[in-house]
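Researcher: Let's try something more involved. This one mixes different molecule types, so please make sure each is placed in the same coordinate frame as the others.
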Amino acid sequence: MELLGQDGREGLGRRANSRFVLILLILVSILLLLSSLYSAQASVFKKAREGVLDATAPVLEIFSGPVAYFNDIAGNISDYFNVLEQNKALREENAELRQWMNEALELRKIVGAYDGLQTYRAPPAAQPIDAYVIGETNDAFARSMIVNAGRAQNIEAGYAVVDNRGLIGRIVDTGARASRVLLLTDVQSRIPVFVEGAAVEGLLVGNTRGKPAIAITEGVDDVEIAQGLRVLTSGAGGVMPRGLPVGVIDGGHGDDIVVDLYANYARTRLVRIINYEFPEVGETPSADEEVAATVSEG
Amino acid sequence: MGYRAEHLLSLLKTVAPLLLGLLGVIFLALPMRLFEGAAPTPIIPLVVVFFWSIYAPAYMPSVSVFLIGILQDLLTGGPLGLWAAVYLVTQFVVMSQRSYFLGREQKVVWLGFALAAASASLMLWLVMSLMSGVLLPVGGLLAQMATTVLIYPLFGIAFGEFHRRILVEA
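Model: All components are placed in one shared frame. Result:
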């Protein structure tokens, strides 16, 4: 009897203890969640994220090689089934691109002539840093990638990241040798963009869908935004250079203007991080402002 | 075997499920893009937490669960504490139903896991929607949870063998 009771008490005691710890840790997590809501950029959390980034980067780098290899094999298998269609599509695209190339060469000549003019001053050139994608968050709501370049390569938070198709996101955390890229589809992503040819400025707001939407900040109310217009970064608010290709307008989705991104995240392997120094504002900003005001009114 | 080595071995056994969970988190961060990214990556840490919370909670103390969740939060760059809370609540619910699941058929446990995954999804979706201020689309989350539930039997068997042969026997 005594033994049984002791055992029971012991078992109960241990269970109660572990349950106490469990509930305590749940409360700690909720507290962390609430505090990270109000201070997501607090230095403690930021340090922790960067530390984890640095600690896991070597592991991710080791694994990302074989993973890419198997992805390629799987990709190859599916490619075999539609190689003819792909070939045809590529030939058509090639023909189209050749025309564009000729036009671009022509335009380069004209721009070169303008460059020669004394009144024109070219904006400072960006200094790109190349990096490989070594990780990505396979999470339903958080969309980001980890690339193998960090503070050692002079990368800072806010820099734009592009691949060979267009903008893919911006740097949010930088470790010593790895950084996190917040993708355009993440709920937290806000990128200032403009629609080419429609005089519309807005924010590209991620919503975890494949095609993010534009929230218009400036533009004429009854403006017609046609399908297929190009969307580019506007450079408003600093850091990101103006004119990086983002995507094309893909019609409306309710009240939203939906953008079909150029980026294809399933194929992004090599990225380019754009280290862009914004030109200093000159002594006579008032003249610029007047011009900007008249443009937005008109 | 010396006393030291034995002690070390038993310690290693106790943290083995934790290490598996951490590996699962790393697996989630790998750039897996099978079928052009159409196949979502299963959330293996959820399976690890669920499995050991039912069959051997001593091997999955709440601190381990917390560490797995925190690592996932830090690595995904999401709000800190979200996955920790999800895994801990899952453990809480599972441990309260433990006596029901013990000794049941695998099918029943599988159903239990599906329920646990559904409740975890609901929690994730609610918190993320609250934080972003809009009702987020659920498609991606459902696909990922469905994948996780589908692969559960495979990992259930593998973890079962691992637990029996390595953690308990050896």
